[in-house]
Each structure stands twice: as C-alpha cells, then as structure tokens.
Amino acid sequence: MIASTALVVAIGGSVLVATAPAGAVTQRRDSTTASSAITGMWAWGNPIDPAVDARGEGLAQFEPQALADFAAAHRLRTVFLSVPWAADEGPFSTWLTDAVDALHAAGVTKVAALGGDAAWADDPSLAATWTAAALRAAPFDAVQFDVEPWVVSSDDQLPAVVTQLQTMYDAARAAAGSVPIGADLPWWLAAKPQPGGGTAFDALLPHLKSVAIVAFSDHAAGSDGIVALAKPAATAAAAKRIPFSIGVETETPEVAGGPGATFGDDSAALLESETAKVRTQLSGLRGYGGVTVEHLLSWQGLLAR
C-alpha cells in the first residue's frame, strides 16, 4: 500500500452506514456476493469520538454492528482492523473487543490487528510494544503489519531494509506468543534479488505466517495487470506454504498513484469482474486466500455510486 498510515476522510451518507435500512450499498452487490472473489478488506479508522480521545475519528462505519453487517453482506472471511498505539488504554479496548466479537458472529474467521509505522523498522521494540497492547486490548486472531520503509529507501538500501523488517517481525512474533504475524508486502519485492540469493520477498516469508500481496492495478490481464504483477510473489508464498491474499485498491487515483492503480475511478462491477479473473488464474496455488480490498471507506464509496 502507498502511504497507508494516512487516514482518509469518511464519505458521508446514510447508505454507507451498515445499520441503516437496506439500500444501494448492499443491493448493488447482492447479485454477485455468492460468487465474489473478494474475501477480505483493510479497515482503517475507528468510531471513537475525538472529543473523548485524540486518537478518535468518529466514523460511524466502524461501529461494531456496522462493520459486522458490511462483512456479512459481502461474505468476508478476513478483516484487517486498524489499531492505534496503546490500544489497551482509553476507550479503544471496549470498541475493539466488541468489533472483533461482532465480526466473528458475522462469519469472519480472521480479524487481525492492523498497524504500522515506517519508524518501527528502525526500532523493532516499538512494533513489539504495539503488538502486546493490541492483543491485550482485544481477542484478535492475528496481527497484520503495514510497515513500508521502502517508501523512503533506495534500491541499494533494500537489503538492509529487509534485515530490519526480519528483526521487526521476529520481535513482534515474540510479543504475540501464539498469535500469528502477517504483513502487507508489495508485489515488486519478488523481483528484487538479495545479495545472498533469492529475492527480498523470499527473505521475508520465513518470518511471517501469512502475507497480503499488494498488486495495485485496475485490470487482471496484461503485463501490468494484477495477475502478472502478483504471480511471482504468490508462487513464492505457495512454495513456502505461506497463505496469501491479493490486495487491490479502491482509493482515488490521486491517493493510489494514478488511475491504472485503482478501481476507485471505475465501478464496483469492474472490481468484481476483474478480481474474478484473478481468482481463476491464481486460486490453483497452494494457500490462495482470495482478494483483499483496500479499504472499507473507499470501497463503500465505490459501491454507493
């Protein structure tokens, strides 16, 4: 993901609140839900009143029942739910616990604590501290890292960055105990050779229990399509028996890095049809877990159009 730690302003309108009467958001996808290739989503945000806690964003779409209703309507199996620093302090623990319980009741089998800051790669103890607090706050099934030090690194610095991430993942794994650690990794890491052999993606896999392969494109086929971008990384994950999903984008082109990188300027129907093609091409690989959408608010905006 690109600059995923930056939060996006919520899209207004009652159709986006899952507790509202049945409307356009659910209806526009009901006909495809049963066969949808989409199995998960990133959910960046929270419903906490900022007047109560400075970390709050006051987004109704993140109320536990709203999250659960949306996940159930779209038959999601995985939700990466953003968790702030020191989540076990203040009002966040109650919300997170209720959200995890509601999502489980709605059929979601994996609710992961989602977080990340590029600084964590430099200081793995920060990742461990955040992990421990997140798991004290709520009964998460997993921890999902979105840490992207390559945003401010050059290619010749990548081997050192990989080493930093290996250390960070291991520190978080020690803090997490039996709770599995996963990460969001861009497809192009599978095209970056490491000095000792293999690729940057290969080097990170042994430190993870699952991976979301970020392959932001608005079409499945072609040399710049989702399948071609993601397949080397997906094949590597399958060979190591690491479960994986394929990440696609629904943010605006301005945020995503251009119109070709996102479905945000397309349609919900195109998102469905292109991700179905991804499933056809990649589902035969061991560990394939479907397509994960970035992110809840922009996906809801796409569905509401």
Radius of gyration: 18 Å
Give the number of helices.
Answer: 11
Instruction: Tell me the strand percentage band.
Output: 5-15%
Gross geometry? globular
What is the share of helical residues?
25-40%
Structure description:
The chain has 305 residues and is of the alpha/beta class. Helix content is 39%, strand content 15%. Strands 1-2-3-4-5-6-7-8 form an eight-stranded parallel β-barrel, surrounded by six helices. The longest helix has 19 residues, at 158-176. The two termini are 24 Å apart.
Keywords:
305 residues, alpha/beta, disordered N terminus
Blueprint (SSEs and pairs):
Layout: H1 24-33, E1 38-43, H2 64-73, E2 78-82, H3 92-105, E3 110-115, H4 119-122, H5 124-137, E4 142-145, H6 158-176, E5 181-186, H7 200-204, E6 210-214, H8 226-239, E7 244-249, H9 253-256, H10 268-282, E8 288-294, H11 296-304
Parallel strand pairs: 1-2, 1-8, 2-3, 3-4, 4-5, 5-6, 6-7, 7-8
Helix pairs in contact: 1-11, 2-3, 5-6, 8-10
Give a nutshell description of this structure:
This protein is of the alpha/beta class and 305 residues long.
